[in-house]
Design goal:
Layout (H helix, E strand, L loop, with lengths): L5 E2 L7 E4 L2 E9 L3 E8 L1 E4 L1 E5 L3 E9 L3 E10 L2 E11 H6 L12 E4 L29 H6 L1 H7 L3 E4 L3 E3 L7 E7 L5 H14 L3 E6 L9 H9 L19 H8 L4 H9 L22 H16 L4 E4 L7 H10 L5 E4 L15 E2 L2 H12 L5 H15 L7 E3 L8 H5 L2 H13 L3 E5 L30 H16 L1 H5 L1 E8 L2 E8 L2 E8 L5 E2 L6 E7 L2 E2 L4 E2 L3 E7 L1
Parallel strand pairs: 10-11, 10-19, 11-14, 14-15, 15-16, 16-17, 18-19
Antiparallel strand pairs: 1-3, 2-3, 3-7, 4-5, 4-8, 6-7, 8-9, 12-13, 20-21, 21-22, 22-27, 23-26, 24-27, 25-26
Helix pairs in contact: 10-11, 13-14
Bound molecules: acarbose derived pentasaccharide and calcium ion (CA).
Calcium ion binds next to loops.
């Protein structure tokens, strides 16, 4: 925080290009600037984009050129001033920032392998840790291969799989062997076949990397349990004393007690190591140890060579940022790295992850679409603030309405029309849209025992699908994949008030108008002379341009 009234520096958040436009931003102490212009050959009026507690952010969009020479003329509350003199070679400037070549045209589909489809009952594993909420259903990679035609029919072109490596739980976040795909999921052979089949169809695959902790049963940690201070792996973890677990702990573990009883007792015994929250099954790695960092890089590289196209990194915000910086720098291949960062991602992008799981956007979505705590105007400010913070990274963020850790959006909204509105927003906004298995057929939170919240097995009985949702999602996926304006175009807010979101995505000649009426009243949209309706949900009257309650429309302006 420089404390200056106005501030600009040609770094990536203040100056970047995407989709043939260059965006330039100016930050001002809140309330100081009345009007701002960028002077570059001519006067360009800047629009006020967003405000946070301290600042107002202004932005202007120029056609991209090789170099820019500019300064600002600013009308402040105490007079007009001229600010700066910047000379920027755009190509040089943007050399610093690289994204995976394939990412911008993608739509992700997230799968929890155990809960998708059981393609091979022979590899089914009974529950070694038979806890409440920890039930193996039997899904595997063979199941995904068998359903590959379904996925291509739906149109998705990227998949994110939650952990697939050897582990004891159905969710796999307790890895015991990072170099082998779990036998219960079909093993390494199924992985080879899966990547081959996906790549044949130009579907990318990213894996879940659990490098914040390992399983208690990972050989490295077991070595520490056994050998204590003499273990060569003692510095792999965050040990606070020896022995790491007491004799009582080991006795209970070895006992014949049922697993849920064991688990309950183990939970309350003092242990001498840090873990993921207080989960004894997940001892935390010591990332200050160079060898741990090498181990992480090695595993990541290994699976990239085996055909993975990227990684989603679990509890990424619980690992020092430098670890990811190192990974980003040294990892080979054209890979996409997504960090699981639960809040503001500024610390974690640019030279670390390409994108993060966009929880701040999710929070804005919750407040506007679910809780109705904020109106469209506040929602827009939130969107534009994130854009001001993230700059070009916004276009490669992993955006979602739900995932395996949160409730299904349809269950939160309890209303199909509302759900479709939220989906339209996801698919027409900046950032990479991701759906979670079952979203496309209207699956809801589970109420079956042993199936937590959003993790019920995929419903394969078509009788139970909501075909309206299915065809809508399919259409939105197609729209997204075929529209450059939706992928990399400018976001131009037109009207944001009450429950109305009206914006344009624009790239060169392509202009896509999106209207979402998230209210109980009809809304009148501005008249267009000629247009083509690309997508519609709820009701829209073409003759009068009236958009019904909880309805949406995506229009191509001709
Ligand atoms: C299970 C049960 C829980 C129970 C827990 C402890 O589901 O109900 O409380 O055990 O006994 C995996 C499994 C979970 C499992 C967990 C522990 O998927 O089912 O929980 O392991 O065994 C925080 C973290 C974030 C994390 C979420 C879940 O910051 O990194 O919690 N997400 C990743 C994965 C999870 C995974 C793990 C981490 C562990 O995506 O699936 O869990 O490897 C606020 C806070 C956040 C917090 C969030 C919780 O937003 O700011 O920091 O996230 O709430 O939703
Ligand atoms: Ca199986």
């Amino acid at each position: 925080f420089s404390g200056e009234e106005i501030y600009h520096y040609p770094c990536l958040t203040h100056l970047y290009s995407i989709g043939d436009y260059t965006y330039i931003r100016l930050r001002a102490l809140r309330g100081v600037v009345k009007k701002a212009f960028l002077i570059e050959e001519k006067n360009w009026e800047m629009r006020k984009k967003a405000s946070d507690e301290l600042f107002d952010y202004f932005e202007v969009r120029l056609p991209k050129k090789e170099s820019l020479n500019y300064y600002f003329r600013v009308q402040t509350v105490s007079g007009t001033i001229e600010y700066g003199d910047f000379d920027v070679n755009i190509e040089e400037h943007e050399k610093k920032y690289k994204i995976p070549s394939w990412i911008l045209t993608r739509v992700f589909y997230q799968i929890m392998p155990d809960r998708f489809f059981n393609g091979n009952p022979e590899n089914d594993q009974t529950d070694p840790i038979d806890l409440k909420n920890s039930h193996h259903y039997g899904g595997d990679l063979e199941g995904i291969i068998q359903k590959i035609d379904y996925l291509t029919e739906l149109g998705i072109n990227s998949i994110y799989l939650t952990p697939i490596f050897e582990s004891m739980t159905y969710h796999g976040y307790d890895v015991v062997d990072y170099y082998h795909v779990a036998r219960k999921f079909g093993g390494d052979k199924a992985f080879e076949e899966l990547t081959r089949e996906l790549h044949k169809r130009d579907i990318k695959l990213i894996l879940d990397g659990v490098f914040h902790h390992t399983s208690f049963f990972h050989p490295y940690f077991q070595n520490v349990v056994k050998n204590g201070e003499n273990s060569e792996y003692k510095d792999f973890y965050r040990i606070t004393g020896f022995p790491v677990v007491t004799k009582e702990f080991l006795d209970i573990l070895a006992s014949e007690l049922p697993w849920d009883e064991k688990y309950k007792r183990l939970k309350s015994i003092k242990r001498n190591y840090e873990s993921f929250y207080s989960v004894w099954l997940m001892p935390r790695l010591n990332h200050d140890n160079k060898k741990v960092r090498e181990f992480i890089r090695d595993v990541m590289e290994y699976w990239i060579k085996k055909g993975a196209d990227g990684w989603r990194l679990d509890v990424a915000h619980g690992v020092p940022p430098e670890v990811w910086e190192d990974v980003r720098e040294k990892l080979p291949g054209d890979v996409y790295l997504v960090g699981e960062v639960m809040d503001d991602a500024r610390l974690w992008i640019f030279n670390k992850f390409h994108g993060t799981m966009n929880y701040p956007l999710y929070e804005a979505i919750l407040r506007f679409f679910v809780e109705k705590e904020i109106d469209a105007r506040e929602f827009l400010n939130w969107l534009e603030l994130l854009s001001a913070y993230y700059g070009p990274v916004e276009y490669v963020m992993y955006n979602f309405l739900d995932n395996h850790d949160v409730d299904r959006m349809l269950s939160l909204l309890k209303n199909k029309r509302k759900y479709l509105c939220a989906l339209v927003f996801l698919f027409t906004y900046r950032g990479i849209p991701a759906i979670y298995y079952g979203d496309e057929i209207g699956m809801e939170n589970a109420d079956a025992p042993f199936m937590e919240r959003s993790r019920a097995p995929m419903e394969w009985d078509m009788e139970k699908w909501d075909m309206d949702i299915f065809y809508s999602v399919k259409k939105l996926i197609k729209l997204r994949k075929t529209s450059k304006a939706l992928q990399i175009g400018a976001f131009v807010p037109l009207e944001f008030r009450g429950g109305l979101l009206l914006y344009r995505r624009e790239l060169n000649g392509e202009r896509i108008l999106v209207g979402i009426n998230y209210s109980r009243h009809e809304e009148h949209l501005p008249l267009l002379s000629s247009f083509e309706i690309l997508f519609q949900s709820g009701s829209f009257d073409k003759a009068t341009n009236k958009l019904g309650p909880y309805s949406s429309i995506v229009i191509k302006e001709l």
